[in-house]
Amino acid sequence: MMTILATLLSGLLWLGGTGLHPIPALTWLAPLPLILASTRVRPRTALCATALAWSIGQGGVVGYYLGTLRLPVPAVAGVVLLGLGLATGTVLLARVLLLRGRTALAVLAVPSLWVLGEYAASRLLPHGAWWSLAYTQADVRPVIQLTALTGVWGVTYLLLAVPIALAALRASPRPALTCLLVLLLGAGGWSAWSLGRSPDPAARLTVGLVALRQPEDGLPVDEPQGRDLLARYAARVEGLVARGARIVVLPEKVFAVSDTTMPVLVAALRQTEAQVVVGAVRQRAGGASNVALVLEPGGTVTTYEKQHLIPGLEDWLTPGDGEVLVDGRFGVAICKDLDHPDLVRRYRAQGASVLLVPALDFTSDGWLHGRMAVVRGVENGLVVVRAAAFGRLTVTDPGGRMVGEATAGDAELLLAAPTSGWGTVYSRTGDWFPLLSVALLVLAVGGARGGRWPGSATTAERSAGQPAERSSV
């Protein structure tokens, strides 16, 4: 009965603490019931309980994978199985080490398994760092400051280390409490220092964002519906510029243009006092590309081509292969590009302090995908100005503060945004934390395979129905 209750409780906590609209506090608690129960049952029971709990937790996103993203069933099964493997592996490895009395190793090394799983997925799959527990904390600024040091991997590490330490408090209070304090004081000290930083108040610029209702793949500007949408956008952009905007960002794929119709779009949206960034599908004889057009006041048009396309939904488009930096400080990216930390790091290395991002999103994932962009900004010390057609309009500073936000659908924002950023440890060093996690995982596995420490875990193993092994010094 205890195991059943632990399974249901962890499953419900994962259901509420992950997915498209997570409750941050629940994510920290989700593994705790399973880890506590695992030390009182046999390994096979702990494995089955964790697998069932994780499957319950995935109930909120499977429909999104299949319906909204239109991922093939094998791909969805692979994503679910990846999480299932990391969850069961984490619980079982923690169980072994806790039963052997190796509390510090369980707390400090076992979370590395999940970190390496997320990192491997980010490198091997086309979705970048999209699949990470860290984004569940995107609205908790003290927590996401850690990404400026470690990337998202450090947040994932803490999300597993804390519940393991809490589970160990009952049997090994002193080492568990010591580990917990070390982790929380270390992360808390970094967070306190990071939260004390703020952009240069003198380096501010008025920006405007606007998103009107549109189809997903753009309207041709030479057709009646396209001309109507272009006229409405032109009026909104002109109004924002008249009220002081010096940069205006529109969503992704607003219009479909060719070399012949491009001048129509440019003539309608170009402003003499502001830069306008608009997303479009650019059609050419050799195919089509998803682009962000930067319309300069002097008449120059700079084109950025989206580098990271959505598998299945954007297979008909040709990806780009280079970054675009405007005026030496404004980097341009499109929607899913910000799921890839390495692209944003490259922009920071080139001197960018602001990212201008046309985006699309799919309504239900508007909060989650917009917050992923917030985390990219914190990782690299960048301002992010992002306009999503079916998500959120957001402007955030390098510390993750929400300067302005509106829900898309005939919405606009006009505000003074910072334009100065700062370098971070992560922007300079990259993914060093997963490398550290390799060493930690080797220690954890070695501790699990080694002999028992003298006199440890006898009571716990007996309570699980397992005979105690004889210990010797």
From TrEMBL:
<feature type="transmembrane region" description="Helical">
    <location>
        <begin position="75"/>
        <end position="98"/>
    </location>
</feature>
<feature type="transmembrane region" description="Helical">
    <location>
        <begin position="142"/>
        <end position="169"/>
    </location>
</feature>
<keyword id="KW-0012">Acyltransferase</keyword>
<keyword id="KW-1133">Transmembrane helix</keyword>
<dbReference type="Pfam" id="PF20154">
    <property type="entry name" value="LNT_N"/>
</dbReference>
<keyword id="KW-1003">Cell membrane</keyword>
<dbReference type="InterPro" id="IPR045378">
    <property type="entry name" value="LNT_N"/>
</dbReference>
<feature type="region of interest" description="Disordered">
    <location>
        <begin position="450"/>
        <end position="473"/>
    </location>
</feature>
<protein>
    <submittedName>
        <fullName>Apolipoprotein N-acyltransferase</fullName>
        <ecNumber>2.3.1.-</ecNumber>
    </submittedName>
</protein>
<feature type="transmembrane region" description="Helical">
    <location>
        <begin position="105"/>
        <end position="122"/>
    </location>
</feature>
<keyword id="KW-0472">Membrane</keyword>
<dbReference type="InterPro" id="IPR036526">
    <property type="entry name" value="C-N_Hydrolase_sf"/>
</dbReference>
<keyword id="KW-0808">Transferase</keyword>
<dbReference type="GO" id="GO:0016746">
    <property type="term" value="F:acyltransferase activity"/>
</dbReference>
<keyword id="KW-0812">Transmembrane</keyword>
<dbReference type="InterPro" id="IPR004563">
    <property type="entry name" value="Apolipo_AcylTrfase"/>
</dbReference>
<feature type="domain" description="CN hydrolase">
    <location>
        <begin position="205"/>
        <end position="420"/>
    </location>
</feature>
<feature type="transmembrane region" description="Helical">
    <location>
        <begin position="176"/>
        <end position="196"/>
    </location>
</feature>
<dbReference type="Pfam" id="PF00795">
    <property type="entry name" value="CN_hydrolase"/>
</dbReference>
<dbReference type="InterPro" id="IPR003010">
    <property type="entry name" value="C-N_Hydrolase"/>
</dbReference>
